[in-house]
Specification:
Layout (H helix, E strand, L loop, with lengths): L1 H35 L2 E7 L9 H4 L3 E7 L17 E3 L14 E3 L16 E7 L14 E8 L14 E16 L19 E7 L1 H13 L1 E7 L13 H4 L2
Antiparallel strand pairs: 1-2, 3-4, 5-8, 6-7, 6-9, 7-8
């Protein structure tokens, strides 16, 4: 009985030792195989990541992995050190390694003549004649006053009911993009700008309630813009009728 028990224990010990030796051998062989492939540490996407993602938000979607050097193309990154302020230029899929070339300055993703819309705002575009956009002299990044002209206003306010009304809707609205037709060639003097031709598509960065009023004014009334800088004081937003004009 004791002999059988001792034999069983010995067999169990031999099995455990054999398993440990096999595990060590496999690991050593795997390490030798990896070493032969010149492994490198790279950042790999753990999930799909959209283009435009800032570096500060990118780390949560990446992990460091060891990959065979032959499987890594280009200048793969093993950390995000020194990449502050950049964004992802192309979409990444899960399992893809991060190349240095895929991190670029945010400005390089923008269409010429545009700026990035501030966080929390949305964009809305209106089509305006040159005279309504300061003679087409506006540029992305400028801030403007937005005025609306409303004909024969139906209002409970006796002061404006049935009258044409002009009203300052907003001060210092940011222009995020503007598309203007090329100016006509002119023989005018060098101190005079060429006559603008065609209308302009002007895109604003605004909040939802601002977008609603701008869209309504574009659809059912008319809009004028004034160029404003940081020194322009906030304007009076009271409705202006012929009565105020002729005072």
């Amino acid at each position: 009985m004791k002999t059988r028990m001792l034999g069983g224990i010995a067999a169990l010990i031999l099995a455990v030792v054999g398993a440990v030796l096999l595990y060590s051998y496999v690991n050593a062989a795997d390490s030798r195989a990896q070493a032969a492939l010149d492994p490198v540490q790279v950042l790999v996407a753990t999930k799909n990541v959209s283009a435009g993602t800032p570096v500060k938000d990118l780390g949560q979607s990446l992990t460091v992995k060891s990959l065979p050097g032959s499987a890594v193309t280009g200048a793969a990154l093993d950390s995000l050190a020194g990449q502050d302020g950049k964004v992802l230029s192309q979409d990444m899929v899960a399992g893809e390694h991060l190349l240095a070339a895929k991190l670029v300055a945010e400005e390089s993703l923008l269409t010429p003549g545009t700026i990035a819309v501030p966080k929390g705002l949305q964009e809305v575009t209106v089509l305006l004649e040159p005279a309504r956009v300061v003679g087409s002299m506006l540029r992305a990044g400028d801030t403007v006053g937005v005025f609306g002209n409303y004909p024969k206003v139906a209002s409970k306010n006796e002061a404006t009911a049935g009258l044409d009304v002009t009203k300052l809707l907003y001060d210092k609205v940011l222009i995020t993009a503007i598309q203007v037709a090329p100016q006509e060639k002119s023989t005018a003097t060098k101190d005079v700008a060429a006559l603008p031709s065609g209308s302009a598509y002007v895109t604003f960065g605004v909040e939802s309630d601002q977008a609603s009023k701008i869209i309504y004014s574009q659809e059912f009334a008319s809009i004028w813009l004034t160029k404003q800088d940081e020194n322009v004081p906030e304007g009076d937003k009271s409705p202006i009728t012929i009565n105020e004009v002729l005072k």
